[in-house]
């Protein structure tokens, strides 16, 4: 396996076995105002929505997680098959490994998603740092690899800074993103990887023509924490300490969602989203959908039915939140009354 492929395997192992969760997403500070007379039947609450021109049964995204090592093929198979069955969106992990090496087993870890989910909304994934090496044709190759409906460009510079082998040259990335957004055959999503996107950065991305922003804020899985574990395994003490120091760095997801939605029309909220109620809160803050990653990992290891069960639970929780706020549709939920409390309010006030 290439260095990139082995790193993907390391990431999944660490997420499954180590404490790599942080708190502070801000969703606990968001209260949706209860409607005692909702005047709607819960069974008739409509959770369907549109994301980048694709209709989904619910505003839920299985966030980019994996691919790039043969050990991840069955995980992606289960996730994609569940997305097909429940009609939610799904992204694959970074496709760098598939673009680097002509290896059928590695490619299958990605291509399996379209094989089992011919109708699902699937998006690909490349890193912003890699855009400095790739031209648009390379990104199109990633689109073609999974017949993607959209392409995510991930921003993971804190993770790269902690990686012993990380790429820390961020010069020229915004221009490269703008070029891809202008020329690629499918819509472009720019996503963080756990540290959030500020209003100012969301504005720059909107001006660059990106079609959606996935805030992936602080408060869920910490990639600096994951890389700290990897550094410890190779006795890279300085990098291990760096990862621990920045473990909880970033813009909280609730703050990032509010700020990004103020300047961009299509925002996906992820980072510490752990329930359908969190998805409802994210939409009330202005998001078009809520995304989860780690909560799907263990179910994916058990198979398609376990992933479907989790999605159905999330939809039930979302539907119930819509019912008790009197929101008959997702568009009504976006307009529902909410109250911002605590650290999140203080953060926003000081901004």
UniProtKB/TrEMBL annotation:
Signal peptide location: none
Catalytic activity from the UniProt record: isopentenyl diphosphate = dimethylallyl diphosphate
InterPro entries: Aldolase_TIM (IPR013785), FMN-dep_DH (IPR000262), IPdP_isomerase (IPR011179)
Cofactor: Mg(2+); NADPH; FMN
Gene Ontology biological process terms, A to Z: isoprenoid biosynthetic process
Binding locations of substrate: 7-8, 94-96, 159
Binding site for FMN: 64-66, 94, 125, 191, 221, 272-274, 293-294
GO cellular component terms given for this protein: cytoplasm
Binding site for Mg(2+): 160
Class in the EC hierarchy, top level: isomerase
Residue ranges of every copy of the FMN-dependent dehydrogenase domain listed in the record: 24-95, 171-335
Keyword Transcription regulation in record: no
EC number: 5.3.3.2
Keywords in alphabetical order: Cytoplasm, Flavoprotein, FMN, Isomerase, Isoprene biosynthesis, Magnesium, Metal-binding, NADP
Recorded GO MF terms: FMN binding; isopentenyl-diphosphate delta-isomerase activity; magnesium ion binding; NADPH binding; oxidoreductase activity
Transmembrane intervals: none
Localization: Cytoplasm
Family: Belongs to the IPP isomerase type 2 family.
Its job: Involved in the biosynthesis of isoprenoids. Catalyzes the 1,3-allylic rearrangement of the homoallylic substrate isopentenyl (IPP) to its allylic isomer, dimethylallyl diphosphate (DMAPP).
Subunit structure: Homooctamer. Dimer of tetramers.
Protein's recorded name: Isopentenyl-diphosphate delta-isomerase
Source organism per UniProt: Natrinema salsiterrestre
